[in-house]
């Protein structure tokens, strides 16, 4: 699959999320286990989702990954301890779309990393994936759509 890389400027996005550590093979199960907690806190405050669920990768070194799974919101809500009120960052970023099975998402991440290296840019934190398809509604992964976002450090303009 060929990836189209887009340079974007994001606004900070209010969000609720749960942070956890898990082995890569357990991510899907943890996502399904923890996302309902985020949804419960959102609904208890009459919050509105501003988009599809996401997973943000904070630390990928070692056998376990540190991940936040959450929901973007239209306004800032309060967390409850385990569910954190923490925005997705704004600023420059590169993004691409992955169409297909989640097991192949590494290719999209690699395409973004290659773009960053080729264009001599620096990342400003962990990437996140936004899941626009629900496998429980569509059991054919060929059509699953996931947006992958990698935040960048702003370029310093020469004066």
Automatic annotation (TrEMBL):
It holds the Pfam family GyrI-like. This is Putative Transcriptional regulator, effector-binding domain/component. InterPro entries: AraC_E-bd (IPR010499), GyrI-like (IPR029442), Reg_factor_effector_dom_sf (IPR011256). It comes from the Bacteria. The lineage of its organism: Bacteria, Pseudomonadati, Pseudomonadota, Alphaproteobacteria, Hyphomicrobiales. It comes from Candidatus Filomicrobium marinum. Residues 3-153 form the AraC effector-binding domain.
């Amino acid at each position: 699959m060929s990836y189209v890389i887009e340079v974007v400027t994001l606004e900070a996005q209010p969000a609720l999320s749960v942070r956890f550590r898990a082995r890569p093979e357990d991510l899907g199960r943890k996502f399904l286990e923890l996302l309902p907690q985020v949804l419960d806190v959102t609904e208890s405050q009459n919050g509105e989702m501003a988009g599809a669920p996401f997973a943000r990768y904070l630390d990928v070194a070692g056998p376990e990954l540190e991940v936040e799974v959450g929901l973007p919101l239209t306004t800032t809500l309060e967390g409850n301890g385990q569910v954190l009120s923490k925005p997705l960052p704004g600023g420059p970023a590169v993004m691409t779309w992955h169409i297909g099975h989640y097991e192949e998402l590494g290719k999209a991440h690699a395409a973004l990393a290659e773009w960053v290296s080729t264009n001599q840019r620096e990342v400003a934190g962990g990437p996140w994936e936004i899941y626009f398809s629900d496998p429980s509604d569509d059991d054919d992964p060929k059509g699953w759509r996931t947006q992958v976002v990698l935040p960048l450090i702003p370029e310093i303009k020469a004066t």
